[in-house]
Request: fold
Amino acid sequence: MTQVKAMAEPTATTQPDAPQPALAIATDTVCFIIDKLREYDALDMFSEPAEESSPLEGEDIDETLEGPGHEFEQAPVLQELAAFIGDLPEDEQIDLVALAWLGRNDSIADDWPAVREEAAQAHSARTVDYLLGTPLVADFLAEGMALLGHSCDDSAAEQL
Reply:
């Protein structure tokens, strides 16, 4: 009879005594963005628009067909996020993208310099659209933060 050993999965966190990589963006800023992204995600994406029963009943059919096509794209929380991220300095925007990539992939904290360098090379004027258009970006940011030893729970506790 053969015994099957369960392999322990590698942990995604850094060692408690390991130095945390320096981020250009403040932990509180990332946590604010994560909270707002989750607020946006919580919107009822399947509710029907209250004004019209069909998008084709609008006055201007061309505007309806060429418009954003999604009632939540103009949600105030999304507009707030777009303006907030767009106003961040370039280094902080690069950190956001790098954190999302770090959290999205099977990366480890040691990958941070390479991931950040790749994000810096890929940075463009479309960073806001890229981040806000990425499904699960709030989860990816939180996971990227955790990989680097940062936590939104820690930043909330520090504010008390």
